[in-house]
Q: What sequence folds into this?
């Protein structure tokens, strides 16, 4: 089965740039989607199709995907961005959705 | 406004059954594929099952295949998850999630907690 690997935690100072990676075998050939989940809340889609933003998501959120790594980039980080972030793909060989293990973003 | 409201969670003994429901509103339910995703306490997200808009195509995670059954009633704008032979490891918050046209999840419900314990 397809595996997505994320760092357990990332820390960043306010106003700086946070980068959260998602590793997978030839992930660049798949569409990657990202979710933000704050404590006690349901996940929220923040990036789909590698780099598209749903309406209402700030431009500070961006994504890229190439080779074996997809990246979620959050520019000018704010305290309100502190959350868990999950990457996700659809594995067409098994017809399963796959999530990464999640990354806890801490704003220092 | 898109709304997904889950119900049916609760405490059940190992080996027991439970049926979750998800009431959808604010969009044309019959035009969208739907999913169930769960999250064990303190753990990450785990996809559970997918159903196409007509109900003709269904997929399950290996961990629930043969025990869970996803279904939908487009006339009632409702999604269901019948869970049988429940195990302690099925304890989780279960979310219904709308499929955003290509196997990503653009709207989520607030979740319903299922606890499997004796």
A:
């Amino acid at each position: 089965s397809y595996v997505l690997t994320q760092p357990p935690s990332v820390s960043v100072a306010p106003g700086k740039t946070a980068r959260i990676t998602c590793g997978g075998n030839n992930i660049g050939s798949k569409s990657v989607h990202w979710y933000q989940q704050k404590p006690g809340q349901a996940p929220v889609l923040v990036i789909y199709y590698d780099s598209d933003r749903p309406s209402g998501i700030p431009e500070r959120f961006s994504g890229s995907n190439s080779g074996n790594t997809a990246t979620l980039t959050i520019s000018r980080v704010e305290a309100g961005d502190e959350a868990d972030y999950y990457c996700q793909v659809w594995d067409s060989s098994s017809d399963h959705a796959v999530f990464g293990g999640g990354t806890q973003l801490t704003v220092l | 406004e898109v709304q997904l409201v889950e119900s049916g969670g609760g405490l059940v003994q190992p080996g027991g059954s439970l049926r979750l429901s998800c009431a959808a509103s604010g969009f044309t339910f019959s035009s969208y594929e739907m999913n169930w995703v769960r999250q064990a306490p303190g753990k990450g997200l785990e996809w559970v099952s997918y159903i196409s808009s007509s109900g003709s195509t269904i997929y399950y995670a290996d961990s629930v295949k043969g025990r869970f059954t996803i279904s939908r009633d487009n006339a009632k704008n409702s999604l269901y998850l019948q869970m049988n032979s429940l195990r302690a490891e099925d304890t989780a918050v279960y979310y219904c999630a709308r499929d955003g046209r290509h196997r990503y999840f653009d709207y989520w419900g607030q979740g319903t907690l299922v606890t499997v314990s004796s």
Summary: The CA atoms of residues 23 and 69 of chain A lie 5 Å apart. Chain A is about 0% helix and 45% strand.
